[in-house]
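User: Sequence for BPL/LPL catalytic domain-containing protein below. Tokens please.
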Amino acid sequence: MKILRQRESLGAQQDYESAMTLLADVRRTGPVLRLYEPAPTVAFGRRDELLPGFAAAARAARESGFEPLVRKVGGRAAAYHGGCLIIDHVEAAEDPTSGIQDRYRLFGDMLVAALEELEVEADVGEIPGEYCAGEHSVHGTHPASSPEPGRKVKLAGTAQRVVGGAWYFSTVLVVEQSEPIRSVLTDVYSALELEWDPATAGAVDDLRPGTTVAEVERGLRKVYGMYSEYLGYGPLTD
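Assistant: Structure tokens for BPL/LPL catalytic domain-containing protein:
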């Protein structure tokens, strides 16, 4: 499996289009894992675009310095920025629809394992009131030593797209600086007239202060290396 470490964001739209290009080419290139830190983006779902408040929500995103994007995969609006790690796994498959649920379980477990490398307590599952709610979200729990022990926060959302002969699995993991994400989503969800609980939006460094994207990436690469034989990828190459 080839690891493509994108060193800087190309911008919200171009980053998304690059993923679609990888998906279109993957039957020729072989499996690809793309990692990068994104430009500030609010990624809307197709259902959001149909709501009366969509134009106001997109305007609120821009006013907060986040570029609005309507994606073809995923649910409701989600926000991310340079303190996040995007993990795009793209692979060819004869029957890409057959493993959809298995992929959600596998990649959720792998992300939890990567966070456990940093001694961050994490698990897969929706927490009440989270943004872009989904049963395969990854959440973390504030440690006993924190001011709010046991409180759960959403750390990552996942989504898939399946096309003829290939699939694309994308994860957005919030590592640093959760406050700008809470702030912009508060304005966006208000414009869309959707309910959510801002206290559910968190970052890894809320649970383990000082954690960086680079540290999380090292943990993720280690876990992918451990799973590579099981997944049949052989050595991981940059």
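The first helix runs from residue 12 to 29.
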